[in-house]
Write a structure and sequence with these properties.
Oligomer: heterodimer
Strand order of the largest sheet of chain A: 3-2-1-6-10-8
Mean pLDDT of chain B: 93
Number of helices of chain B: 4
Low-confidence stretches of chain B: none
Strand order of the largest sheet of chain B: 2-3
Structural class of chain A: alpha/beta
Number of strands of chain B: 5
Helix content of chain B: 55-70%
Distance between the termini of chain B: 21 Å
Order of helices and strands of chain B: HEHEEHEEH
Chain lengths: 268, 101
């Protein structure tokens, strides 16, 4: 059974996702010891490549999505099933900072598909969980998904495609805003659909996805390429004043939501 | 700028509550063990039950709520090792954290 990781990276006018993918791929190789396949478009791929991926799949980016900060080429994630050359795949966001071999545990789980349904935010110990809408389902996270090539998993990704193509319709039904396509929302609905509108525990990674959120920045404690120790700074606003707080973390994977911060972490 | 200078210049204070929550989150996940077609948590309840039983095979409900027939000594060994190693690491990191101001 072949195992590997799959990254999608389409450069936007604002962010170089290819560079993020290279840094993440190196860390995947180092900590997880598995090969990495990149899905990208010819515009994102530089002439002089910085790293040799196991496979590079060139495809067209769907450039029809945008966020508050600009264009966001995140569509087409449903193709992961079809494009992955591996029997067992970890599908990761490029801004996921791998610092341990923890994700390997997802290969051992007795299931063919799993993703996160709960998150924690560093420096926000009591943060709530995100839901599709006020009375909607709790969101699943497409940040890290492990899957095997089975009929059921194929159906999940086919459903994700259908939801992406009819996102406004599903947004109307579930009461969320449709202006920005989110894979998290698509995956939540697709997984539920294929499971008969239920959410089996087997499809959930049994630990929290760790986010670095707003007002929080991460700084690496050394410039080693595979550094695993970080200082997390937080601006705590109290009575109109900022009080700076920090903690230190080590050997912990995390997802950096602020792309500028991620770029800073991977810079030499 | 290195992180020590950054902390000093920003007059940042170590947040013990956040650090404690982070450690709990980090180590909680390390108690999870996939074995014998089930998913287990190396907690005291499960370890004590396996320890108290004398049968070679027992049926346990795993964390997915599925009944799984398991080889008791093998699972006990695995959960014991996981529990000890994880608690050791957690304790060491906690002691380090306690020193910070």
């Amino acid at each position: 059974m072949s195992k590997g990781a799959l990254l999608f990276a389409f450069n936007s006018p604002k962010y170089n996702y290819y560079e993020m993918a290279v840094a993440t791929a190196k860390r995947i190789n180092h900590f997880l010891n598995i090969p990495v396949t990149l899905v990208t478009d010819s515009e994102s791929l530089p002439e002089q490549q910085l790293y040799t991926f196991d496979t590079v799949v060139i495809t067209d980016a769907d450039k029809t999505n945008k966020r508050d900060w600009g264009l966001w080429y995140n569509k087409g994630r449903y193709r992961a099933y079809q494009l992955s050359p591996y029997d067992e795949t970890i599908l990761l966001d490029t801004d996921y900072m791998v610092n341990s071999n923890k994700l390997l545990k997802t290969f051992e789980l007795p299931t063919d598909f799993c993703c996160h349904d709960t998150t924690s935010y560093l420096m926000y110990p009591n943060a709530g969980q995100e839901a599709l809408s006020a009375n909607g389902f709790n969101t699943l996270w497409a940040t890290a998904v492990t899957f095997k090539k089975t009929k059921r998993v194929e159906q999940i990704f086919n459903s994700l495609e259908m939801i992406q193509q009819n996102f406004r319709h599903y947004a109307n039904i579930h009461g969320f805003i449709s202006s920005t396509f989110r894979n998290d929302y698509g995956l939540t609905l697709a997984t539920r659909m294929v499971n008969g509108h239920t959410m089996p525990k087997e499809d959930i990674i049994p630990w929290n996805l760790l986010h670095i959120g707003n007002k929080t920045t991460v700084h690496k404690n050394s410039n080693d390429e595979f550094n695993t120790e970080y200082t997390v700074m937080f601006d705590n606003w109290t009575r109109g004043k900022i009080r700076k707080e920090y903690i230190t973390i080590k050997d912990t994977d995390f997802h950096v939501m602020i792309k500028e911060n991620f770029m800073e972490l991977i810079s030499e | 700028m290195d992180t020590k200078t950054l902390i000093t210049e920003a007059k940042a204070r170590f947040n013990h509550n956040s650090a404690k929550a982070y450690l709990k989150d980090k180590y909680d996940s390390k108690f999870i063990v996939a074995d014998q077609a089930g998913l287990w948590r190396a907690n005291l309840e499960t370890i004590n039950f396996l320890n108290a039983s004398t049968d070679e095979q027992v049926i346990l409900i795993d964390t997915f709520n599925n009944p799984v027939k398991i080889n008791r000594p093998d699972l006990l060994q695995k959960l014991n090792d996981t529990y000890k190693n994880t608690m050791e690491e957690w304790y060491n990191e906690w002691v380090e954290l306690e020193k910070k101001r």
